[in-house]
From TrEMBL, chains A, B:
It comes from Nostoc piscinale CENA21. Pfam families: Pyridox_ox_2. This is Flavin-nucleotide-binding protein.
């Protein structure tokens, strides 16, 4: 059972600290449900935020991309990075404009990335990316060949310095506002899949697999 | 009709430039559909990425929050900021692991934020936040009072230096891989609303309004 994270000065949630969560299991669940992280780094003295896919293996986050990517070339120098994953769970509608809010779960990670040079570790990370998106997909598709591996940079970031922030529940209105005759409550939001679209070049005898017909986040073993 | 943005060195899309889009209308559509932006700034020499709500009025983005927020206190000093909004439109499943991708629309904005001090402009920005989430809501709820306004910081950021990046369509496989007998195509993803949950203190005679029963993004005038 993973231990709770020890909050660092950077990961200690200061605003509304009752929403903070430092449990590794909670952090993992949020990361496993998200599809895209937002990577913040400093380039030429200025902040840059780029969305990208990711994968997780135990207490390590992996990102990847082309050797031509400025972000990856910068990060592999070991500069400071901040990676944030946000899930929006609902809209919170109060009786006053001021008390409107959103329900969300977010994870903020600080650290420095490390280039993965070991071939086996690199392949394991790429497997984690694919499986993060669709469980079981890695076994079904062609694995990366030597040329593809050399055209892919994989970086790792330890989840040592990470924290979660979570808001749940309905609105909290000022006492006098409860008499305002307007609907109040929560609109839950969910990321859902529509009907899969066959590739134009798909062979006619290949049907959509069941796990893709009923695609949900996070991907879970039955 | 708004003009296309002139790409700056910071907003010129370098990786896969054929995905770049500098049209103001495209940028506005992505911003109007999103609910949360990721704000990147430098604090104590290190990058920080924080998710937050936002609103747009013409060529200006507004963010807001508590005077106790370190992010807002930092940004109102006029430091460099990067704000990114990402919409995930689908998973792209190829026959090789390497060619898996996602369809997405993202906007990246660079600039410096300005504190809104004029009371009327501040109120207009707060109206934009509420209307960004639910069109028509502002008229139905109690407007911010003097105390709430003083407890809210609103910052503006011009959309002068902004660009979009968009991927659409199915997978593109290597020629030899088309013979692999695996399903390939796109799984469209959408942010959808579930049944609204009444606030526990809702008066029994208040029904869920139609626009909330059928909530979709972006919010549109009929």
């Amino acid at each position: 059972m993973p231990q709770p994270k020890a909050p660092s000065p950077r990961t200690t949630v200061k605003r509304i600290p009752q929403r903070a969560n430092y449990e590794s299991e909670t952090i993992y669940q949020i990361l496993d449900e998200g599809l895209v992280c937002h990577i913040g780094f400093i380039a030429d003295g200025q902040p840059v935020v780029i969305p990208t896919a990711y994968g997780r293996v135990e207490d390590t986050l992996y990102i990847h991309g082309s050797p031509a990517s400025r972000m990856l070339r910068s990060l592999q120098q070991g500069i400071d990075v901040c990676i944030t994953v946000t899930l929006i769970d609902g809209l919170v509608l109060a009786r006053s404009a001021f008390h409107h809010s959103m329900n969300y779960r977010s994870v903020v990670i600080f650290g420095k990335a490390t280039l993965i040079e070991d071939a086996a570790q690199k392949l394991a990370a790429l497997q984690a990316f694919t499986e993060h998106i669709i469980l079981g997909r890695w076994q079904e598709v062609r694995s990366p060949n030597h040329q593809e591996l050399s055209r892919t940079i994989v970086l790792s970031l330890p989840l040592t310095e990470a924290s979660a922030k979570i808001r749940t529940g309905g609105p909290i209105d000022d006492e006098l506002d409860y008499q305002i005759p307007v609907w109040a409550g929560e609109i839950p939001l969910k990321f859902t899949a529509a009907v899969p679209i066959n590739d134009a070049k798909l062979a006619p005898n290949i049907a959509v697999p069941t796990n893709l017909k009923n695609y949900t986040r996070p991907q879970k073993l039955d």
